[in-house]
Amino acid sequence: MAWISLIFAGLFEMFGVAMMNRLNQKRNWQSVVLLILGFGASFLFLSYAMKFLPMGTAYAIWTGIGASGGALIGMLFYGESKDWKRVVCIAMVLGSAIGLKLIS
User: Staple partner for 97: which of 36, 54, 61, 103, CB 3.0–4.6 Å?
Assistant: First the structure.
């Protein structure tokens, strides 16, 4: 259950990052509320996961999902570069997160 919670924390982190971009485009109260809800849920799920998983592993995987997911959202929805070097770096971040899961 802790790993599922950690995955949800990473997904809500991605959502929060996307809402940051939305807030920069549309300055309204809905964007602010969605941003706060996204990051709030992310921290809630991360806090639960860290009760059962080592802090370093949980934090590394959470940030890996958030960072690589944010980059993917930028590439898919906001026209950011899809250069192969960028994709390789995202794959390395995800591979590191998977490696931490396998050895912990």
Answer: 61
